[in-house]
Amino acid sequence: MLKEAGTWFKEGLYDYWQQSFLITKTVFQSSGDLQDIAVFETPWFGRVLTLDGVIQLTTGDEFVYHEMLAHVPLYAHGKAESVCIVGGGDGGMLREVLKHPSVKRAVLVEIDAQVVEFCRTHLPMVSNGAFDDPRTEIVIADGIHYMRTTPERFDLIVIDSTDPSGPGEVLFTESFYKDCAQALKPGGIVVNQNGVPFLQGQEIPDTYSRRKPYFTDVGFYVAAVPTYVGGFMALGWASLDASYRRLSRDVIAARYSAAPVATRYYTPDLHGASFCLPAYVQALIPY
Prior knowledge:
10 helices, seven-stranded mixed beta sheet
């Protein structure tokens, strides 16, 4: 349970390391059938969303994560019209995806309707109207079942999930990645959050090995998200076109210039640089 204002919320994601946030106000708290949800305010990071006691986002730095998972694949693809977001009930990924006029349809698949409804109410600044965009379709369903059975085909699938434990674990399996590959149009891309390699290094080789049989190109890129402590966060990349990760800075810059979006982290220069991995991350990839 959250404490009163003036006390500290301690996130115990790791047995050997904790981070704490000073609570200035508890905004919302609910124990549902699927997840325990809470929102509280902090002096610097803004509003904080937690699921089952683990921080999912803060309004202070969520833009880093959402921009990099959306704009890197969208500018790399260059003409994506259909996007599926698995998870992402806060609406931040939807917000960034819909900044691109090329996107004609965005399907948000969220397992818990309560997450969407309370984020509409208590974190409206994250979605910023994206739930009501006419291009948005919200599907309340198990992402595993949806991806296995959908007749839809997408240019981009964004897996905006929790870590591979508890409810989010099934979104990191080989069978799920196989289903994602089959739900892509030719040349499609799949991206996902892949943990903090310094502390969650096993996620890199696991994801690589499970995706490699089904995609032409499998790799990773990185972003620095202050809330996700431990250094760079890894973002998983898998595509049916091997050329995307090797596009020049000039190509990406031209696409950005032709269809610019407002960002606070992403830039065309950073786009390519994010695929330059530190040696300790490269060493985790079982090429």
